[in-house]
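Run folding on both entries below.
>entry_1
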Amino acid sequence: MPELLNTRVEDCFKQAEVFFKRPFKRPVVSFKLRGQKAGVAHLHENLLRFNPQLYRENSEDFLKQTVPHEVAHLIAHQLFGDRIAPHGEEWQLIMRGVYELPPNRCHTYAIKRRTATRYIYRCPCPDSDFPFSAQRHNLVKQGRRYLCRRCRQTLVFSGEARVE
């Protein structure tokens, strides 16, 4: 899997070098990105991180659009420095001029949301349901207290949990 993506990163850098007639420092490429983002460029570390799940599910568009998108961030940083907007005119120039691609800010890949358990807390108010995250539920178990904003009573775990 990483070979095609690494080759595409290298090809994008070569395209930029031909266009700008100058060399660019190559980044470290990582596949340790999860969640909703397809890719992230860490400008000061010269690091590209890609989401392996979104790459597997959308490999053709990922190679065509996402890889150049992230490389363009590094190229823009190396050319213009820190004082540019992430998706500003310099980055857009690279997307349009070098890669001949639309400067889309965001991908449209389908994202599978993770399920989360919510712990139901209540107070004396009618229809009071307060779904707590696992993290907040654990804080309560360690002694933290949360109050209802209406009645100012301590919220108490109902014993119920639901998966969302």
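>entry_2
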Amino acid sequence: MGTPANPQKYAVTNAPSRIDGTGAFAGEPIPGRRKIGEIRGETISVYEAWERARKLERIMIVEVNERRAIDASRSADPLRFTNHSCRPNAVLRIRQGRVEIYAMRDIAPGEEITCDYGETHHEGKLTCRCGAPGCRGAL
């Protein structure tokens, strides 16, 4: 069995983010409506995901369906550091059990890649720091 194909379609780097901690940044121009890449990780039950989330302040877990989740905490994929924004430039999609990120518009080199997390385990108790016009203020 060989090495799995690289799921990253465009160069993405990680660097300090003005939004929160480390962010994912475009390493080259990314055209709109194109797949940027994927976030891989450990497949766990949703129950285990909620247990892990309860114990951690920072999580990198995505529910892929009502029974399964992906914990990307130990993943090497640079998109695992994609921060939330109330005015994102990318969208997270679950396709055939994979967590994929697509550009909503052209993204310039050096621009932080962001997604709207939607509902989270924080239940509106975590302050949003995206700074976007019209920010909801909480996650």
